[in-house]
Amino acid sequence: MSTKVIMPQMGESVVEGKVAKWLVREGEQVETDQPIAEISTDKVDVEIPSPGAGTLTKIYVPEGETVSIGAELAVIGDGKEEGKEAAKPPEVQRPPATTPGRPPETERPPTTAPSPEKPAEKSERGEAKREDAEIGRISPLVRKLAEEHRVDLSQVQGTGLGGRITKQDILRYVGEEETQPAEEQRAPASPAPSRPSHEAPKPAAPLPAETLRFKEFKIPRYEPKEGDQVIPFSRLRKMIAEHMVYSKRTAPHVATVAEVDMAKVVRLRKEKKGSIKEQTGADLTYLPFLISAAIQAISDYPTLNAAVVDDSLVIRKEIHMGIAVETEKGLMVPVIRRAHEMSLAGLSRAAAELAEKARKGTLSPDEITGGSFTISNPGREGNLFGTPIIFQPQVGILRMGEIVKRPMVIDVDGNESIAVRPMMYLALSYDHRVIDGATGNAFLHRVKEILEEGRFQL
């Protein structure tokens, strides 16, 4: 019995990967979970384990070749079916090569001469294959939109990554179909039959008012001039751009800002950073305090730890906290899994380890997927505040601002006085489809209260 080795999913936005190196050769014995290949993507480099024990009978994807997620890389057998498996290599799913204005390449013709087919049969099979391929690559949102407008996906040209059909492609196609009746209405009518001279002409029927339509605005293309520096987008930058545009288009963002007195957190950090460093080996920053405060606030307002699935809101049981990390390649969001089970020291160690892995490019697929809420920490030079973009499919993201000392009016034993306090702005962006202003503001106010009280489980 044979076992297939499949290209694993490397992240929510990763659609392909490259076989960097095979650690086992054809004909060699492997054990279950033994590393057999090194896979490289723009986000992470990882070794994939063997899904079973036996003999690596056939390698279908050579080193250096890039294939789509889910493609069959090799097959592991018990030795008895080696000849059979080697004789039937699967069709490797490679990313479709596209160029601007040109549809993805069609499948290569088989090497053996096909049996004669009628033109109608060829057309029907070709359309079916294209439709199956497109449907397999579109998002649930696009599929639902196509069903609502009764759009045949085989007739739509995809302009997304790798030729995928996007929401804009559907809307553009529907708009072209809807304008057709109006053009037909404006076609010259056939001459009216002549009427007797004694009949009075009937008043003309009022022309139907045309629906006001706006054409898609296209900005003028900028042509680089002498001295300009042209930097092509990397694959990671393209994926980040695609995700950010999708998030802003999908989720109506609302931002709210709170001003927090960080005096007690600053004092507690100063007192405990030495012992935490000895315990975890990591420097105690302000980020673990904010993660802990957000976790406590989510227990009071669990809708912030949710995801929109079709027309439902799924409130997650576990809190997997994403932390935005800037790397040389671009922004990455590693995930602290089950963050609600960790102490302040545990959060400090986990955040430091993930940030170091992100900068080195050694994150595993499990460490960059499945986040349920995200915190963005721009660092010491983060300015006062900013309004972050929600990391889909989450519904909220919290951004730290720079801690700045400012004179503030405080109440001491019923008397007001002016004191210099370390202040920080917290900015929350939330998805207004599912979170109302009252809930979003209440959640942020609860985070502020926890930080100002300075009570944390070390």
Automatic annotation (TrEMBL):
Segments crossing the lipid bilayer: none
Listed SUPFAM superfamilies: CoA-dependent acyltransferases, Peripheral subunit-binding domain of 2-oxo acid dehydrogenase complex, Single hybrid motif
EC number: 2.3.1.-
Stretches the record annotates as Disordered: 78-135, 177-210
Matching PROSITE patterns: BIOTINYL_LIPOYL, LIPOYL, PSBD
Gene Ontology terms: cellular component: cytoplasm
Cofactor: (R)-lipoate
GO molecular function, one term: acetyltransferase activity
Record domain Lipoyl-binding: where: 2-77
Pfam family for this entry, one: Biotin_lipoyl
UniProt feature, compositional bias: Basic and acidic residues: 78-88, 118-135
The keyword Acyltransferase is assigned to this record: yes
UniProt keyword annotations, A-Z: Acyltransferase, Lipoyl, Transferase
Superkingdom of source: Bacteria
Residue span, Peripheral subunit-binding (PSBD) domain: 137-174
Family: Belongs to the 2-oxoacid dehydrogenase family.
Subunit structure: Forms a 24-polypeptide structural core with octahedral symmetry.
Protein name: Dihydrolipoamide acetyltransferase component of pyruvate dehydrogenase complex
Organism: Candidatus Manganitrophus noduliformans
Gene (name only): sucB
